[in-house]
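Example 3.2
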Amino acid sequence: MKIFGRIFYALFMALMFIFTFWYTRALMEDNYIVDNGTESLANIDENYFFFYSRIPNYHKSEPILTYSDDDFEVRMFETAQIKENDMPSTKESVFIMIHNKNNVLTSPYTLRLVGETNKDIRVVQYRSLDLYVAVNENTEMIVSKDDLLGNYTEIQLIDDQTTYFTIPYALSETDFTVKEKLITFYEENGKLPYLELQADLIYKNNPSDLSEYQHIFYIGMAIYFASLIIMTYFIFFFKKKYLGRVKPSVGLKRDIRKK
């Protein structure tokens, strides 16, 4: 039974290591997004699309739709999920952000495309920021281009009782340019661009710089290894020393002397 106990313990600690590693990485990213996002939103920074690193592959930094009033700032950015070995199947999508300036919103909402047949898109809060994003059926923060094209004339943010804003809406196929430019570049150069399409405002996703939050990772791993040492000592050594497995107990010594 001892061998099975040790195997179980080793597997448990390995799983705890994996959990600690990914949990601390998630904490680092969450702190990065909240700190930078709060500052950007407070300054109504036009570049608050800074966390595009979470968006697949490529994006265009100029929004294809904007709207602003006293309570809301709306941005819709074109994005593309590239398949280098199958460029024609590149998925075109849109990242939709709604800045909740005055904390008007407090729960999930619906973005409704109004036309001959309405289409509803779910909207949820992004982390703990005053920011809401549209999500698809897989809860990904991108909406397929195909879901946004149609005979729609308006776009509304609604819940069961209130319409928060109504925006004129007239997106068409010609508003989407990222895929075409990427395919053209690839055909001419045999590779995908990095910064070569800056003139067209097309950029590759760029992983977040989390170096400022590296201490979170170190603290998490330090706690893990300290726990590993302490638990290993008490499970495999402490009992042996004090529970009679190595040294006879006082009572046992007395009984031996009597014999």
